[in-house]
Write a structure and sequence with these properties.
Length: 264
């Protein structure tokens, strides 16, 4: 369903108005206003009626502003920021002015006359434009910092593995295994493999934070890449994520048991 549909705006408005955080914030604002008694309400009303007056005023004016914002946002988002702020501020100001007049008329029997109306409207509209500008800029900052919808999640960073710096870029990935071949070490990763002239002990020192162990005099494996393990006489055989099988010598069986790859 399109975001331009008023039903979508109403659903978003209902969701926002029933959020616990919104309700707590509105209650806090109404409580502060009731205690302070601004605009002469401390002289005109006792604490109880004053709390009711400010509760109704805060909830209705905020609710009107939130609904107008949700209805206008899809229609003005392509416009310059100044146009968005001005449209939201003026529309909200008009609605809030009517609500404040209605609440004051019911509570105090006061309706601004022709002389009082311009400064009253100017104050309400000015406040609404300032609040709209603040909310627009805050929302823009939140959108800029939030992950883009539909964007693929950023890949998890690889562990610090100095050994990967020895490989071509297209073969750098999570380590799978290291195996001795003559004077070389075959370095297997999830992206491929490569031979490097070095000792196995030196290669193992460069696996960094990758969890694993030397399981044979000619092999080291990364525990996270083991997909199966089975006993083979007094040895064991590990199957890796790449499909290779690596033998585990009898002396190294405790290491893979300790890693949870074989029953104790």
């Amino acid at each position: 369903m399109s975001d331009d549909n008023p039903q979508s705006a109403l659903r978003e408005w209902r969701r926002q108005m029933t959020q616990p955080l919104t309700l707590v914030a509105l209650a806090a604002v109404a409580g502060v206003m009731a205690l302070m008694g601004p605009f002469g309400t401390d002289d005109l009303l006792g604490l109880g009626p004053r709390a009711l007056y400010w509760g109704v005023t805060v909830v209705t004016t905020y609710g009107a502003g939130a609904l107008i914002h949700d209805l206008l946002a899809p229609r003005t988002r392509a416009r310059p920021m100044a146009v968005q702020v001005l449209a939201a501020g003026l529309a909200t100001g008009g609605a809030v002015s009517l609500l404040v007049v209605a609440v004051n008329a019911l509570t105090f029997g006061w309706v601004p006359d022709a002389k009082e109306l311009p400064p009253f409207l100017g104050s309400v509209l000015g406040i609404c434009v300032i609040v709209s500008a603040t909310l627009h800029f805050a929302a823009r900052e939140l959108r800029a910092r939030a992950p883009q919808a539909g964007a693929p999640p950023a890949p998890a960073p690889l562990p610090a593995v100095p050994l990967l710096d020895r490989l071509p870029l297209d073969k750098r990935g999570a380590l799978v295994a290291l195996s001795v071949e003559d004077h070389y070490v075959r370095i297997r990763t999830v992206k491929g493999e490569d031979l490097r002239l070095m000792r196995l002990s030196d290669a193992i020192r460069e696996v960094g934070t990758t969890p694993g162990a030397q399981v044979h005099r000619s092999h080291w494996v990364a525990f996270g890449q083991v997909t199966a393990a089975r006993r083979d006489g007094d040895r064991a055989i590990l199957t890796l994520s790449t499909g290779e099988e690596i033998p585990v010598s009898r002396a190294n069986l405790p290491r893979i048991r300790e890693a949870g790859l074989l029953p104790r």
